[in-house]
């Protein structure tokens, strides 16, 4: 597992499969615990991430850490990644081409880690992974698709200038880890949307 994840990391670091490779400083591979029960998926690296090659280390990352602290979860226990691994110029939303070109890496991360649940952070991840939109209306919910569970919440960056939304993010993350405990205890959790035929 360790070797496979290292291989992906190195592939991402030298990847030139899409246009974003031309403007990035550093690619940003996923980071964290390969045995995590949950993978957090954001949108794309921002400025700090691009400079350092690590996901969620800027202001948005601080907000995510605040919510994790509230749930008493350490960043060392979880795995964090993004839909695209390189920063789009001026932090624009990654295009559908960029997302689909990069998706193989995320697929591999998921298939190696085999998380019990994937935590979708915001609209870009929601749209890319489940075809959804308006995450604010769907946040806090659990989705099952092709045997994989997903938990929906807002993007941590949305909480930066909005005190109400930090409360929302914190309560969602607490709910997420309650659900993970239930899954581990073999309790049947409530699935709000089931795409499974
Ligand atoms: N925003 C994201 O979506 N991902 C990061 O890694 C940082 C900010
Ligand atoms: Fe490669 Fe993804 Fe970076 Fe594009 S965004 S260059 S596909 S790692």
Short description:
With 197 residues, the chain is an alpha/beta fold.
How do the helices and strands line up, and which of them pair or pack?
Layout: H1 2-14, H2 20-23, E1 31-32, E2 38-42, H3 47-52, H4 59-70, E3 79-82, H5 96-113, E4 117-121, H6 123-130, H7 135-138, E5 142-145, E6 148-153, H8 163-184, E7 193-194
Parallel strand pairs: 2-3, 2-4, 4-6, 5-7
Antiparallel strand pairs: 1-3, 5-6
Helix pairs in contact: 1-5, 4-8
Bound molecules: uracil and iron/sulfur cluster.
Uracil is lined by residues 42-46, 49, 55-56, 58, 60-61, 82, 157.
| Termini gap | 31 Å
Name given to the CATH homologous superfamily: Uracil-DNA glycosylase-like domain
Strand content: 5-15%
| Biggest β-sheet description | 7 strands, mixed
Bound molecules: uracil, iron/sulfur cluster
Structural class: alpha/beta
CATH class: Alpha Beta
Q: Any idea what the shape is?
A: globular
Q: With helices defined by DSSP (H or I, 4 residues minimum), what is the helix count?
A: 8
Ranges where pLDDT stays below 50 over 5 or more residues in a row are none
CATH fold assignment: Uracil-DNA Glycosylase, subunit E
Helix content: 40-55%
Rg measurement, Å? 16 Å
Query: Strand tally, please?
Result: 7
Q: How are helices and strands ordered from N to C? A: HHEEHHEHEHHEEHE
**Tally of distinct domains:** 1
**Biggest sheet: strands side by side, in what order?**
1-3-2-4-6-5-7
CATH architectural arrangement? 3-Layer(aba) Sandwich
Overall mean pLDDT: 96
């Amino acid at each position: 597992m360790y070797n496979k994840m290292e291989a992906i990391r190195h592939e991402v670091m030298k990847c030139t499969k899409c246009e974003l490779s031309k403007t990035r400083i550093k690619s940003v591979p996923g980071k964290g615990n390969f045995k995590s029960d949950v993978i957090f998926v954001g949108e794309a690296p921002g400025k700090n991430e691009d400079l350092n090659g690590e996901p969620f280390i800027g202001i948005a990352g601080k907000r995510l850490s605040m919510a994790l602290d509230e749930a008493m979860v350490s960043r060392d226990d979880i795995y964090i990644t993004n839909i695209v691994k390189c920063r789009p110029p001026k932090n624009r939303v990654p295009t559908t081409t960029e997302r689909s070109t990069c998706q193989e890496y995320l697929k591999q991360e998921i298939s190696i880690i085999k998380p019990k649940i994937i935590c979708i952070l915001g609209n870009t991840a929601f749209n890319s992974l489940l075809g959804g939109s308006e995450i604010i209306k769907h946040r806090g919910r659990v989705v099952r698709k092709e045997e994989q569970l997903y938990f929906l919440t807002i993007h941590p960056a949305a909480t930066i200038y909005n005190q109400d939304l930090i409360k929302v993010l914190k309560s969602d993350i607490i709910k997420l880890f309650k659900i993970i405990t239930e899954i581990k205890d073999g309790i049947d959790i409530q699935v709000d949307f089931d795409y499974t035929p």
